[in-house]
């Protein structure tokens, strides 16, 4: 999905030509067609001959097994400029360096850089729509390719039909495949219906966009029939004559209204369905496209795809039949359903599954992008959420999706923030390792391998401020990804296996371990997302005692191999921020036989789950009187206490609970001796911290007008009169060194179905920590400095799709600083318009008290970065009331607040 306001399968049958005319299709007609083509060329003369594609282009190749593929996704305009001569089409939309405009990337540039893409380990190239576009709608350009003027022509900005054929040929000669992005929901943004238009009066409220270039309407029939004022167009019913979606949670609006102003096609109309089938059959036949990614799949009904793929129309058959006629028995389509589930929920995943399988089990889309997996992975590897968030997602998706291995997965793309916008490099590497060791087709977004942190950034020198190409094959991330793709390719268990989660951390960062099984092949994948070593004890592997697992991969070098013990378990120590992979040694046990450990220590009263409100003492018995015993809470070896048992085996330890903020989470502690490989049964307990209100401050209503008092909201109807950026009250609570901020807003809206429960506002909280040196005064990306001499040490940025925490190190006007974890635990109470943000003591320097800390909070909104400010507001940009549009980017602010 590419918004107008953004910043810039299955095989059927075993014969390719079924039916009584099979021999004629295979032998007679191809010969006749070749003779006719030759005769036409001879009569046409040399000019036409030179314009034809070379006769030996390799356009049509058999389909691969898509489970074994790795896709590289390039936004064509931003990747490589192979032909600068096609950049400026004379419409004023080519402006290098201004990312809302065309930058110059094209099909020839893609072809020239295929060695770079293949060197990364990719086996397929996914490109944004190359079709002829509406280039300008009066406000924005369509450099992304999603605003079709004609679905059957190549846009001159990206090249010619011959350029596209040459790209297909070059890919196929390398053993790679071509994936094209397609749109079935809408054309460009040629008209709008005024908000509030009564049904039946659309003609009186239909308004064309006068600034549309290069044409005022689509040029492909019947999509040119877009003027509801004309009886012929109205009767044809090619479009839904509707206003913009204002509530993305309303199914009727979702399927029938305009998304961000883009002209919504009536896909229930058989004429529309037929022409779209013909349009996308064209690219399969004429270029040799091997797969399609379907943009905005949620905006058309699921049964549309049964028609697109399997229609029996002899003049416009479904795409599966067309593909089989070119030798592709497993043509692949996967849809985009932008839907991210909250932790431990799966309603959005169920919605995605409904686009792959109909209510009676009928085949729809062969695959869908796995957005819920992306969301959970980003939370865990990017923001320090409990690893159980991802563990639960893995378990749910295995149960829910029969075609899980055909669901493309990703760490970032053009519709979400870059991973490195809120994630450390190691967090990104861990996420990539998960991508390569879980079911699904990995998708690599261009520039991730070069460490890009900004959305839709160009790769090539002419469009970059630094004037340098970004195709460095020696870049550490390029090398890392190349190693990970090689790992996946070398071991089928990682491509075809089914995962089982073995252990996960419920209280925060820490261990996540899962087992992949494919036949007799077994691999074990382990992560530690915490910045300290973690003990994973009593890991039940489900393997016979004595089986040996050999090291396959480690982010920091090969881990040690290990043997399953007599209980079918293993005890592992995971280094900080690690990612490790082992594989079962084929052929059974290897090495010494497993020896059962002797009886270990016991904990007094460990059979009962305790509920505590603070630190407490633990006692036990049965420990051998020697050094080396460690009291380990939640696996954290950095805080493990040394325990010295008495001669009679009695021992005691203390539990610190200051970082334990969720009373629903059960914590786990054991007494462990690494040398003896002995441990106690676990002690389980819950913590209910005594939160105390430190301050409670009301903020005036209606003061959300920016630092000058003249700022105004964007004009799109989804903003409405809600004043989403108006803070009404802030309450701060403390429990030792933990902090909870409860921020009541004027209103909470969820019209865009935000993953985190609210939209149209980004909260940014700056926290100054007492007695901590350093700090920064700059407000990164917001064009301002903190008031009253305040300095910040932690900065929390939270919106509907983004929750990130930063340290001040490296912060500047253009850099957010160092991403750290864990980010805030988030809870939204829509009824009271309140957003609750809780930071554990571990995120705030592990201090015993926050007395003297200062907090300053402001509001704006975010779309891959803080939204732009103009002199006058635009549909999704703020206005400053006629000023110079250079002011700080905030609407409302509270603070500085000093904690007593």
From TrEMBL:
Biased composition (Gly residues): 1-10
InterPro entries: GH, GH13_cat_dom, Glucodextran_C, Glyco_hydro_b
Domain Glycosyl hydrolase family 13 catalytic: 73-488
Pfam annotation, one family: Alpha-amylase
Cofactor(s) needed for function: Ca(2+)
Biased composition (Basic and acidic residues): 11-20, 698-707
Gene3D superfamilies: 2.60.40.1190, Glycosidases (3.20.20.80), Golgi alpha-mannosidase II (2.60.40.1180)
Segments of this protein annotated with the region Disordered: 1-20, 202-223, 697-717, 877-900
Keywords: Metal-binding, Signal
Protein name: Glycosyl hydrolase family 13 catalytic domain-containing protein
């Amino acid at each position: 999905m590419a918004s107008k306001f953004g910043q810039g399968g299955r095989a059927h049958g075993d014969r390719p030509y079924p039916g009584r005319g099979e021999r004629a299709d295979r032998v007679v007609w191809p010969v006749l067609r070749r003779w006719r083509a030759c005769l036409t060329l001879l009569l046409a003369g040399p000019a036409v001959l030179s314009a034809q594609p070379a006769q030996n282009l390799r356009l049509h190749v058999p389909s691969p097994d898509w489970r074994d593929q790795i896709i590289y996704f390039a936004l064509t305009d931003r990747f490589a400029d192979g032909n600068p001569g096609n950049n400026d089409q004379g419409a004023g939309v080519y402006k290098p360096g201004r990312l809302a405009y065309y930058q110059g990337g094209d099909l020839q540039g893609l072809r020239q850089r295929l060695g770079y893409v293949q060197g990364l380990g990719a086996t397929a190239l996914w490109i944004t729509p190359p079709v002829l576009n509406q280039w300008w709608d009066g406000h924005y350009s369509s450099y992304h390719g999603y605003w079709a003027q004609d679905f059957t022509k190549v846009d001159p900005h990206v090249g010619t039909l011959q350029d596209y054929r040459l790209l297909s040929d070059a890919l196929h000669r390398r053993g790679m495949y071509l994936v094209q992005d397609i749109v079935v929901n809408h054309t460009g943004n040629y008209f709008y219906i005024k908000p509030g238009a009564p049904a039946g009066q659309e003609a009186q409220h239909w308004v064309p966009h006068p600034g549309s270039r290069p044409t005022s309407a689509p040029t492909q029939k019947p999509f040119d029939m877009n003027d509801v004022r004309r009886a012929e167009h109205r009767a044809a019913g090619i479009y839904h004559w509707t206003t913009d979606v204002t509530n993305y949670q309303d199914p009727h609006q979702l399927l029938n209204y305009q998304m961000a102003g883009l002209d919504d096609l009536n896909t229930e109309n058989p004429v529309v369905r037929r022409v779209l089938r013909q349009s996308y059959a064209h690219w399969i036949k004429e270029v040799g496209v091997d797969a399609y990614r379907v943009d905005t799949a949620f905006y058309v009904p699921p049964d549309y795809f049964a028609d697109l793929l399997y229609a029996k129309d002899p003049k416009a058959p479904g795409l599966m039949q067309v593909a089989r006629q070119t030798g592709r028995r497993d043509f692949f389509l996967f849809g985009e359903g932008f839907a991210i589930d909250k932790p431990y929920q799966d309603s959005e995943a169920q919605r995605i599954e409904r686009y792959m399988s109909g209510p009676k089990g009928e085949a729809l889309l062969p695959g869908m992008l796995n957005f819920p997996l992306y969301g959970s992975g980003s939370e865990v590897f990017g923001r320090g959420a409990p690893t159980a968030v991802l563990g639960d997602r893995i378990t749910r998706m295995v149960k829910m999706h029969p075609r899980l291995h055909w669901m493309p997965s990703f760490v970032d793309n053009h519709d979400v923030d870059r991973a490195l916008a809120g994630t450390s490099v190691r967090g990104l590497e861990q996420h990539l390792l998960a991508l390569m060791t879980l079911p699904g087709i990995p998708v690599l977004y261009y520039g991730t391998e070069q460490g890009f942190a900004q959305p839709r950034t160009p790769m090539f020198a002419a469009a970059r401020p630094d004037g340098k190409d970004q195709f460095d094959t020696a870049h550490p991330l390029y090398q890392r990804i190349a190693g990970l793709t090689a790992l996946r390719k070398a071991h089928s268990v990682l491509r075809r296996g089914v995962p089982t989660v073995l252990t996960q951390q419920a209280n925060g960062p820490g261990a996540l371990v899962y087992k992949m099984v494919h036949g007799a092949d077994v691999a074990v994948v382990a992560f530690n997302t915490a910045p300290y070593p973690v003990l994973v004890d009593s890991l039940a592997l489900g393997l016979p005692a004595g089986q040996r697992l050999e090291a396959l991969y480690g982010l920091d070098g090969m881990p040690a191999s290990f043997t399953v013990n007599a209980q079918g378990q293993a005890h592992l120590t995971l280094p900080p921020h690690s990612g490790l992979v082992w594989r079962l040694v084929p052929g059974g046990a290897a090495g010494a036989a497993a020896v059962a450990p002797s009886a270990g220590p016991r904990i007094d009263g460990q059979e009962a789950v305790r509920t505590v409100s603070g630190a407490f003492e633990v006692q036990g018995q049965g420990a051998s009187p020697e050094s080396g015993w460690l009291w380990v809470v939640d696996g954290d070896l950095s805080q493990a206490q040394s325990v010295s048992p008495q001669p009679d085996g009695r021992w005691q330890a203390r539990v610190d609970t200051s970082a334990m903020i969720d009373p629903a989470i059960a914590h786990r502690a054991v007494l462990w001796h690494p040398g003896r490989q002995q441990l106690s049964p676990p002690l389980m307990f819950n913590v209910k911290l005594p939160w105390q209100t430190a301050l409670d401050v009301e903020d005036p209503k209606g003061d959300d007008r920016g630092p000058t008092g003249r700022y105004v909201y964007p004009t799109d109807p989804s903003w409405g009169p809600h004043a989403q950026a108006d803070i009404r009250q802030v309450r701060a609570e403390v429990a030792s060194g933990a902090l909870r901020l409860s921020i009541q807003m004027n209103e909470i809206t969820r019209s865009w179905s935000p993953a985190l429960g609210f939209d149209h506002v980004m909260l940014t909280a700056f926290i100054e920590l007492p007695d901590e040196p350093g700090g920064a005064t700059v407000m990164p990306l917001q064009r301002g400095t903190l008031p009253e001499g305040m300095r910040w040490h932690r900065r929390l940025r939270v919106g509907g799709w983004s929750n990130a925490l930063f340290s001040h190190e490296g912060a500047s006007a253009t850099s957010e600083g160092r991403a750290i974890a864990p980010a805030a635990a988030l809870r939204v109470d829509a009824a009271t318009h309140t957003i609750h943000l809780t930071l554990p003591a571990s995120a705030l320097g592990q201090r015993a008290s926050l007395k003297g800390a200062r907090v300053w909070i402001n509001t704006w909104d975010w779309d891959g970065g803080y939204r732009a400010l103009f002199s006058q507001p635009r549909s999704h940009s703020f206005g400053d009331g006629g000023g110079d549009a250079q002011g700080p980017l905030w609407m409302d602010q509270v603070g500085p607040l000093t904690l007593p």
